[in-house]
Fold this protein.
Amino acid sequence: MDRNADAPWSKFDPEVYVDNNYRTPLEADLQIVRSLRDFFGRCLEGVAPRSLRGVDVGAGANLYPALSMLPWCAKVLLLEYARPNVEYLERQASPKGFDAAWDAFWDVLKEGPAYRDVEPRSRVGEIVRVERANLFDLDGQRRWDIGTMFFVADSMSECPEEFQRGVACFMNALDEGAPFAVAFMKESIGYDVGEHRYPAYRVNKDRAAESLGPYSAELEIHDLDHVVRPGHEGMLLALGRRNSEVAVP
């Protein structure tokens, strides 16, 4: 059984990952972005712009979760462990502005009223910060008002205990009432990035609900029937709010 520490994270190639998944937007991701836009817009209606602290845990080479939080955040922190991904994210958050690959996702977001007056490149450069950190090092001492975790807890280990611990670390980093979005690859058996193989834990809708439920005041799980590569059966998108319980895995 491959655990998180066994994976070749130092060799992760973010450009290959973006080429494979985001350079040409996949309908699955566009559907996710629509759901994020509508969910956050509904949850945060009436919340003052630039008033929240947001976090994207295990951001990887994916900018659209951070973009989805822009209208409401004074700060957004991108936490990532793999050094090549950290360097990629730092380039995206630099004053030069993020790559054109992310424009298609912003085009979907800006159809929501909260996003229409946001200039995304300048806002990202102004409020987004990147920090190299291990998900497992989150101890609940730092808390955020809104958070996302996309293809992380399920895509770093084959070990069920590490999957549950990853979910717990993320959820315990959110304040009570914080809206959150979590995505999993459904029933993934692992994935390739360039020449390197990375592990995965097989998550289905029931396992997603069992892992997130103890931390959630409300929870909806969307089973997206999109297969984007061999070795999985779709995607799961969980949307909800953090409850007041301090749960442990």
